[in-house]
Amino acid sequence: MLFILCLTLIVFAKAEKGNSCDSAIRNAQIVSRSKDVLEKCIKKELPSDVCVDIYSRQAFNPKVYCESRGGDILCNLCNSVADKLINAAESNMALDKVHELMNSLCVKFRRELPQHYCYFVLDELYFKILQYLESGNRSDQFCEWAKMCPSSN
């Protein structure tokens, strides 16, 4: 199974550079670390339904889900959840509570994204939010700063 995940990631990494979905993912630096993810599932550090979603699909391939939506799904997801994640960061919410929040937010996006992909995106977003806020930036510009949305400039 690990071999299949690694092979999928290699194919994904070699995807055509001109694709808007690939570009959005690359620009946002959303990368699946399959070995780390599997270890987190084994240690029960990720929500169980995220791990079940990963096992049932036997691969992590966000490209498929983005292409059919014109690449806007990452921007829509960011705009929809950034405020909640920023509030969690600013209130110093415990990490396990942040994971519960991310999991509940992803349930709302099941039609647009598989649970495991949404969770990885939000996990990456949360740590980007922490970096962003530590730099003293305005919270209303986060999605552009993270290159999840096109710049309005």
UniProtKB/TrEMBL annotation:
Q: Which SUPFAM superfamilies match?
A: Saposin
Q: Which residues form a coiled coil?
A: none
The Saposin B-type domain sits at 71-153
Q: Which PROSITE patterns match?
A: SAP_B (PS50015)
Sorted alphabetically, which keywords does the UniProt record give? Answer: Disulfide bond, Signal
The residues the entry assigns to the signal sequence are: 1-15
Q: Which InterPro entries match?
A: Saposin-like, SaposinB_dom
| Name listed for the protein in its UniProt record | Saposin B-type domain-containing protein
Q: Which organism is it from?
A: Entamoeba histolytica
